[in-house]
Sequence to fold (207 residues):
Amino acid sequence: MSPQSLADDLAYIRDLAEAGEKAPLLGGRYLVWWGSLTTLAYLAQYAILERLFGLPPQALAFLWGGYVILGLGCSFSMHRTFGPEKPGAASTGNRVSALVWKSAGLFLGAYFTGAFFKVALSSDNFDPFIWSVPLVVGVYGLAQYAGGVIASSRVLTLAGQAALIATVPAVMLVGSTLSWLLGAAVAAFCILLPGILLMRSEPSATV
Fold:
């Protein structure tokens, strides 16, 4: 093998590696699903608390129970059917984004599990769910921002910054039903909308 041929081969391998690192993010469908589901759930929470449809507060248990079952069920289904043959699935951006969101999901799951047992087993009047909106908004912002920076995605970076900024009014609105409307807006504009944009830039299964 001549030195020129070896140099050409190395250059080709380098180009492939760089192309892989710049691969489009493939998590758009998950953002669309959780963004739309969370937006609807927060709007429903607001409507129930404001008695817009005459539903009793007990309906909240069915709302969030259905949210967990439907959300996780659809996510697992997408994970099984979403083939690994998509170009760029093994890129750093996609792997880091998946890990960040998995960590965010585990944290939120742990928090809300603890909150549920706190309410169920404690006799005091403290409601740990009252901080759920700023907590969720902040975690969404961290996940979007971290994934966006690692993957050099301006869409996700801006979405993460917007969600982090929205944490300030979310904390200020704690205790008000308006906090649920703010949560719905963040889920729609910082999760659902970026997910749609990512899906539009996804490559086909073949190259």
Observations:
- The longest helix spans residues 92-121.
- The radius of gyration is 21 Å.
- Residues 8-20 have pLDDT under 50 and may be disordered.
- The CA atoms of residues 34 and 71 lie 7 Å apart.
